[in-house]
Write a structure and sequence with these properties.
disordered C terminus; about 5% strand; two-stranded antiparallel sheet; about 300 residues; mainly alpha; about 75% helix
Length: about 300
């Protein structure tokens, strides 16, 4: 007997969530190694961000596993016709908690990106203030929409309007921050390319763009499913939570590991002994006159 569509969607979403969580665990290990193995002082905000995101992803994955066990193994649920579907589509404490974890994870990711924008633009507070205003608007509309969803008013006009506003603000914030960081890196690399002979920040710039594109794509898909009233929205948010964890870990791991590699190469080159070149033999001739009509030449060798 084929599984109902909602059950299949939830199983596929749980499978994708587990895969993404495994990738995040690997990236977390890379982040910790890269951050604590660098020769320069550690930026604790990066380490704390990694720990926070992987903690949220772990908690969400555990809740999702428990949620699926309840839906497909609890006799009180599966004994009722379509009991698993009713349970998966209902608003219970587990789904409310998982939705709250998604908001916290996205909030931490946006704050991390705003901080990076503030740093690369030489601590220009006006940019940070503008982005924080957008962030405040997003979290306000997002929390209001989450409250309406958890109280059974998921697809009311007010909830859909709040969802549209939250999605728009999140997209504007993510695209603006990502573009601002990438442009700053591109301009800095262009300024030093004449001296270095290559674009020093190209890899970091591409990493920022890729991370932003991954997260932006998940926002677009999630918003489209919600606005269309699809039941897939309830399971897609679980995958989106893992993506909002994978994105900052991928960004920090790529940039930090690249910096560590360049610093290691620098320390290896500076710790090597001095290289002695072959002496150049130069002949310097100086003509001095002792009296009119006579001259004396002085020859110096091996300077």
């Amino acid at each position: 007997m084929a599984l109902p569509s909602v059950n299949r969607m939830f199983i596929v979403a749980a499978w994708l969530e587990s895969i993404l969580y495994g990738v995040s665990c690997v990236l977390f290990g890379v982040c910790m190694y890269a951050l604590f193995s660098r020769h320069k002082p550690l930026y604790w905000i990066n380490a704390l961000s990694c720990i926070f995101h992987i903690s949220i992803a772990t908690a969400h994955n555990i809740l999702s596993l428990f949620y699926s066990l309840q839906a497909f193994t609890n006799t009180a649920i599966i004994s009722v016709p379509d009991g698993s579907i009713i349970y998966l589509l209902s608003s219970i404490a587990l789904t409310k908690t998982m939705g709250g974890l998604f908001l916290l994870n996205s909030l931490a990711l946006n704050l991390l990106l705003i901080w990076r924008l503030y740093v690369v633009w030489d601590h220009r507070w006006i940019l940070a203030v503008i982005m924080l205003i957008l962030e405040a608007g997003w979290i306000a509309t997002g929390v209001a929409n989450w409250i309406m969803v958890t109280t059974g008013r998921t697809y009311t006009n007010a909830a859909l309007a709040l969802g549209q506003a939250a999605c728009a603000l999140d997209l504007v914030l993510t695209i603006s921050v990502t573009s601002g960081i990438a442009y700053r890196l591109w301009r800095a690399g262009r300024d030093v390319s004449a001296l270095a002979g290559h674009h020093s920040y190209k890899a970091a710039m591409y990493t920022v763009i890729e991370s932003g594109a991954i997260y932006t794509s998940s926002i677009v898909v999630l918003c489209a499913l919600y606005q269309s009233g699809s039941p897939a929205f309830g399971v897609a948010i679980n995958v989106a939570t893992q993506i909002s964890t994978l994105t900052p870990l991928f960004l920090i791991a790529s940039v930090s590991f690249g910096l560590m590699h360049r610093e290691s190469a620098y320390y290896e080159s500076t710790s090597a002994g001095p290289a002695f070149t072959r002496p150049i033999q130069v002949t310097i001739t100086q003509e001095t006159r002792t009296h009119p009509g006579k001259s004396q030449s002085i020859h110096d060798h091996d300077v």
